[in-house]
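S2.1 Query sequence (DUF418 domain-containing protein)
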Amino acid sequence: MGLVIGRLDLGSRRTGWWLFGGGLALALAARAVSALLLYRMGGLAQLIEQNGLGDDPGGVTALLWEPATPMSWWYLALRTPHSYTPVDLLHTLGSAAAVLGVALLLTRLPVVARALAPLAAAGSMSLTLYSAHLVLLATGVLNGERVLLFLSMAVGALALAGLWRRRFRQGPLEAVVTVSAASARRAVTRMLAPRP
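Output structure tokens follow.
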């Protein structure tokens, strides 16, 4: 969906409104379907019974927020974040589209666009920053200090992106992907071109 959205006219106010409205509707519909399946149609009761959690409120909470290995089709109705259920994926997609729509609409205002410039710089090199954060996490630095780790990653990413964007158009890993994708596109175009 990101590729599809990326091909839209993101400079259009109409696209911003469609992303916001459509994304919000999709996110709310996913939650409503989950509630219907789990509560109205008895899915949660089935999951509680199958897992033997009748008198265990903590177990029910864990079931809803940290589900174990799926043992029933009812698991697909859970809206647990990062569970990769259809409901979670649709909710995440809708939420992301709505946030993107709001950002596109707000950044049409020059004062907001200037205020969000550091986020735009970081967004233009998301692959590089994501990879850098994985390397940082692998080192174990600040492992026991979650808040300090988060703040250092957030501030570091914004500062690094801002400094990098002053000299270069895209991040280093983004440049590598762009060059390799362009080379592959040219090679495929040559292969498919009609021969004289």
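The longest helix spans residues 13-40. Residues 136 and 178 are 25 Å apart (CA to CA).
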